[in-house]
Every structure is written in C-alpha cells, then in structure tokens.
Amino acid sequence: MIMFLMYVDESGDTGHDGSPTKYFVLSALVIHESNWQNLLDDVVGFKRLIKSRYGLLMKEEIHASVFLSKRLKLSNTISRNNRLDLLKKTLDWVNQRNDVSVFSVRVDKTMYKGDVFEYAWKALIQRFDNTISYNNFPGSEGINKGIIVCDNTDGGKLTKLLRQMRHFNNVPNDGAHPGGYKNIPLRAIVEDPIFRDSRNSFILQIVDVIAYFAKQSYEPNKYVRKKGAKTFYGRLGNVINPHVTRYGTQYNIVEL
Predict the structure, then answer these.
(1) For 24-77, what is each residue's pLDDT tens digit?
(2) How far are the Cα atoms of 72, 119, 255 from residue 178, in angstroms, in the given order?
(3) CA 40 centroid distance within chain
(4) How many other C-beta atoms can be found within 10 angstroms of the C-beta atom of residue 76?
(5) How many CB atoms lie within 10 A of CB 10?
(6) Which candidate, 103, 92, 30, places its Cα nearest to that of 252?
(7) What average pLDDT score do residues 135-147 get?
(8) CA-based nearest residue to 62, from 194, 185, 208
(9) How many CA atoms within 13 Å lie on the side-chain side of 131?
(10) How far is CA 100 from CA 76, 94, 137, 241, in A?
(11) How many angstroms separate the CA atoms of 120 and 118, rounded?
(12) E strand or H helix that includes residue 100
C-alpha cells in the first residue's frame, strides 16, 4: 500500500456578513510517503538559504499575508520588496520539484450562501480521494491511500465532516446522467486529519504561500496589484495537478 500526505492551508475567511473577502481558498500540496523525508530535508535547506539571503531566522514563520503587511516585525529588517521576492522564490522552489502535486479549491461566497467551510473542504477531500483512486499523483501505483495534514482551524468540524464522508458522500451525477446525486463514500483517505501548528511545520508554511497566491489570483490586494504579483500562482505550472477538475479553469483551480 502506498500512502500520500496532503498538506492543506487556507486563504480568506468563510464568513458572509461583514466579511472583507469575496473568496475562500483551500490549497493542497501532496507528497508520496517515500519522498517525505527528502521534501522535509530540502525544505530545511531552503529555509537556510533564505536565512542567508534575506536574514529570516529558522524559527521565524513564513506567513504570506503577514509578510506583506506593513506592521510585520522580524528579528532582522527585511524590506517589503524583499519579502515579496522571498515568497516568489518559495513558489519557484516548489515548482522545480518532481515529487509534489499542487491543487486548490476556490469558493465564491457571493454565489454560495451555505456553510463555506464545509463546501470547500468537501470538494477538496473529494478531489484528493478521486485523484488517489485513479493513480493520478506522482508515484502512484497499485493500492493507494492518503492522509490529511493541516492547521488546526475548526479541527473538530473538519474531523466530523471527514467521518461523515466515509459513509454518506453525495456527489452530483455527471453529464451522462444529469440531475440528482449518488452516494460515493470515501475509500482512499485513512484516519482523522492530523493537526499541526504551522509555526512548527516548515511544509505547512510552504503551503501557506501557495494558498495566499491562489486567492490573490482572484482577489489581489493593492500591493500585489502594484507589484504585478497577481499571477504568481501560475509560477507553479509544473506541479499543478491537471486531473483534479475536468473544467479548463485558470491554473486548474476547482471553482465553486
């Protein structure tokens, strides 16, 4: 049996009333278990590289939205332009790998008035389960399973959702059989999600950058627009998984 680990982070918020954002995004980085140690070693090496280049200490978290704020306090002074360059280098570092797969889900909150958290996570989990089942992640062969690793944002709710989807997972019928739903319980995802504090997970810090620029591709802030960074998610073209959606969206993001 082969195991895939899916690291997930979010950008935006799930609220409707009074929310400053139109979109909520979840992004995932998937790695084969046999390549996990290599990825971790390389992430540590990358953190050391940016420490020597920009002065960011190993203990300091890479957090994209905070990095581009004006009030960020770091042990060493790093200009805002250099912080943006650091984030760009992070995406480029991911893109040069051949052992990871990236995909994202975006919810337009103006079009969906229900539970945005559940809606987004259900879509992400379903895509993870499907892509594992069809052997469409790098390194897939034979029987594959997966596990979810994420920041502890509403962890109890996510655990409950995943458990429900193992028994009841209504999926809309495809074009050949339009209308209605069919129950397709999850089969490839094992155990409850593993929750980590991103301050203690270098890999989750990388996914934070991915999620941030996925959302910025739809809803760029003033600084991102000014610096032409709205398209930075596209720098992941080599590792974006083409199998998670049948629709030709920009950067293959699942749009809900």
Answers:
(1) 999 999 999 999 999 999 999 999 999 999 999 999 999 999 999 877 888 888
(2) 51, 21, 19
(3) 17
(4) 10
(5) 24
(6) 103
(7) 89
(8) 208
(9) 30
(10) 31, 8, 8, 9
(11) 6
(12) strand 100-108
Give residue 246's pLDDT.
79
**Count of beta carbons in the 10 Å neighbourhood of residue 125:** 25
* 3-class secondary-structure state, position 53: helix
Predicted TM-score of the model (pTM): 0.95
Which CATH number is 2-255's, of 3.20.20.140, 3.40.30.10, 3.30.420.10, 3.90.1150.10? Answer: 3.30.420.10
The distance from CA 25 to its chain's CA centroid, rounded to whole angstroms, is 8
Q: 67 is written with which tokens? A: 């990095």
- Give the DSSP per-residue string, 121-184: HHHHHHHHHHHHHTT-STT--SSEEEEEEEE-SSHHHHHHHHHHHTT--EEE--TTS-SSEEE-
Is the Cβ–Cβ distance between 54 and 90 less than 8 Å? no
The number of beta carbons lying within 10 Å of the beta carbon of residue 123 is 19
- The tokens of 176 are what? 């050949």
Total length of the chain: 256
Cα 85 to Cα 54: distance, rounded to the nearest angstrom: 10
Residue type, 114: G
Joined tokens for residue 225: 């627009």
**Amino acid making up residue 242:** P
